[in-house]
Design goal:
Largest sheet: 8 strands, antiparallel
Strand content: 25-35%
Number of helices: 6
Structural class: alpha+beta
Number of strands: 15
Shape: globular
């Protein structure tokens, strides 16, 4: 279900958290795969998260790891408003701690809470993505927090232009990070998170609010991924291959991730790209 892929040789700034139905968890600690057991975890409840630290040796890895450790202390969420409030409070605490620091690290945060019954709960900051891999094609379930999205919020890009810039072009800019703040709502960095909602985005993005319930579907493979997966000169062809790979390995997610990883390594070698990539995949039983 989890597949951290090789990238930078110096430091891996990605992290992830996987808590299974029995409360067993895995994540990275000091760049080493770590496992453990949570107490009082509700049976059948899952938590999945991927993070991509920003700031290099200025603390990107450390802040992503810090967020994971905080997530391990949080109880299972069944209420979207409570989940939003707890995570926004964590962001505010980290911002306050770093207010006078010499460096300003941040991290993407994509977390999916999956109760045993009822819809999944999504909270998203940054440009990591939740993708639905259907037999008929790829569906993007999150909005990248990036300059094209900021332009779309200002009414400067229509749906086609936004999709072209986000999915077909090689872009490394990010307009919002957990623990850092945002430039989505203005040209200057604001410490508050700028939550994209149905009410403040263009109509073509209205169904992709940053914090929302998601009714998971059978016969669909879901993929959480950091941006190294599409950090190529022309990423769309590779992305469009994902549904076919998922269909081919519909009964074995490990094989699916291995195949994606191999395609990723080939593409990375061809273009001499070194960004880290982390993938979590799941499907309803």
């Amino acid at each position: 279900m989890a597949s951290p892929l090789a990238g930078r040789e110096v430091e891996n700034q990605d992290n992830y958290l996987l808590v299974n139905a029995a409360g067993q968890y895995e994540c990275l600690h000091d760049e080493v795969h770590t496992t453990g057991q949570l107490t009082c975890w509700p049976t059948g409840h899952h938590r999945l998260a991927v993070l991509d630290g920003l700031g290099g040796h200025g603390g990107g890895r450390q802040i992503a790891e810090r967020i994971v450790q905080e997530l391990l202390q949080m109880p299972a969420f069944f209420d979207l408003a409570l989940m939003r409030a707890e995570l926004r409070n964590l962001h505010a605490r980290i911002c306050a701690e770093l207010k006078h620091a010499e460096v300003s690290p941040g991290s993407t945060l994509l977390i999916l809470e999956i109760p045993a019954h009822g819809p999944a709960l999504l909270f998203h900051v940054g440009d990591s993505r939740l993708l639905a891999l259907r037999p008929e094609g790829l569906e993007l379930l999150t909005i990248d927090h990036c300059p094209p999205t900021a332009a779309a919020l200002r009414g400067e890009l229509d749906e086609h232009a936004w999709l072209t810039q986000v999915l077909e072009e090689d872009r490394c800019e990010i307009s919002q990070a957990f623990g850092l703040g945002n430039t989505l709502g203005s040209n200057t960095l604001q410490s508050e998170l700028y939550e994209l909602t149905r009410d403040n985005v263009p109509a073509f993005l209205a169904g992709l609010a940053d914090c929302r319930p998601i009714a998971l579907e059978p016969a669909v493979t879901y993929l959480l991924a950091t941006d190294g997966l599409w950090a190529y000169e022309s990423p769309l062809p590779m992305l469009l291959e994902l549904p076919g790979i998922a269909t081919q390995h519909a009964n074995n997610l490990t094989e699916m991730l291995d195949t994606i990883a191999e395609q990723h390594r080939i593409k990375s070698r061809q273009q001499a790209r070194t960004d880290n990539t982390t993938l979590l995949a799941f499907a309803l039983l």
